[in-house]
Design goal:
301 residues, two-stranded antiparallel ribbon, 15 helices
């Protein structure tokens, strides 16, 4: 009886976290079970399908990715001036999360249609940074950076707080994202860990500290993202996102104090491990397995 109750409790924790991260009145619903049998951009045996099923890695990795994006002044202006993040942060974050889910788990035809829509929207985003630098969201360099930061964030969050990954695993993850990155226009996005490190080194001189980074962190702290019983974990998840930044970039952004205490790190790792082992009915990962005729527990074996 104790074992059954323990499993049920874990399912409840993971399910409520994923639902809170994915669903909102302002976020469209996507049926990942259709069209039946249609493959995704990356296959179910991929590392990507394992990583993106984990709500803890998604939350933490998303924070990391945004911090890296906001460090680049042109991307920062595009995000801050042309999105609803400041005024409608939670639905905006959930729409971004849904786009990631469709890219990984959605049927190819569904993902391609969604990505085409995102590209059309990016075509209208342009402006000038406070320092006078012109930017366009469709700039290949910026698209490559956004793709690289997202891949880095989710991958490193999974490796740090769910299960360790080898260099070969990380190479595989970056390579798996190449086809989707190309559809987004990020044709120069890294395809291996070495390429990611090279790209980060090349972009480092263009990154800078900004008060907007702290405004973002303040918004994340004030917005009720996690279900009520898990509010204490939210601050830890946010600091976990800062902790896995490359150390030189974390220092440059002024985030060296945004670190986890040893006991907090263990708690976050526990949450990540629990979320990785319990199947959550109705989530994109489970529905995508159903679409392909795979067992519902395919990713949780």
């Amino acid at each position: 009886m104790t074992t059954t109750n323990s499993v049920s409790e874990k399912e409840s924790i993971a399910a409520r976290l994923m639902q809170r991260l994915m669903h909102d009145a302002g976020v469209p619903r996507v049926d990942f079970r259709a069209p039946a049998k249609e493959q995704a951009l990356v296959g179910p045996d991929s590392l990507s399908w394992r990583v993106f099923k984990n709500p803890v890695a998604l939350f933490i990795g998303g924070v990391t990715a945004v911090l890296l994006e906001l460090a680049e002044p042109r991307v920062r202006s595009g995000v801050w001036d042309h999105t609803s993040f400041r005024t409608d942060s939670l639905p905006r974050m959930k729409r971004t999360g849904l786009a990631a889910m469709v890219t990984v788990y959605g049927a190819r035809s569904v993902a391609e249609k969604m990505i085409a829509g995102v590209n059309r929207m990016h075509g209208h985003v342009a402006g000038v940074t406070p320092d006078g630098a012109a930017y366009q969201a469709s700039d290949p360099e910026l698209l490559d950076w956004v793709q690289a930061t997202a891949s880095f964030g989710f991958l490193e969050a999974y490796a740090a707080f769910v299960t360790p990954l080898s260099t070969a695993d990380k190479d595989r993850f970056y390579a798996e994202g190449a086809s989707a990155a190309a559809l987004y226009g990020a044709v120069g996005a890294p395809r291996s860990l070495a390429e990611q490190q090279k790209q980060f080194a090349a972009m480092r001189p263009k990154l800078e500290r900004s008060d907007i980074v702290f405004e973002f962190l303040d918004i994340m702290g004030r917005t009720k993202i996690l279900p009520l019983p898990f509010h204490p974990l939210q601050g830890m998840f946010i600091r976990a996102g800062a902790e896995i930044l490359p150390s030189d970039i974390r220092t440059m952004l002024g985030l060296d104090d945004w670190r986890l205490k040893p006991w907090e790190k263990k708690l976050v790792q526990w949450a990540g491990a629990v979320s990785d082992k319990v199947r959550i009915p109705g989530t994109p990962a489970v529905q995508a397995c159903e679409r392909l005729g795979l067992p519902a527990n395919y990713l949780y074996r």
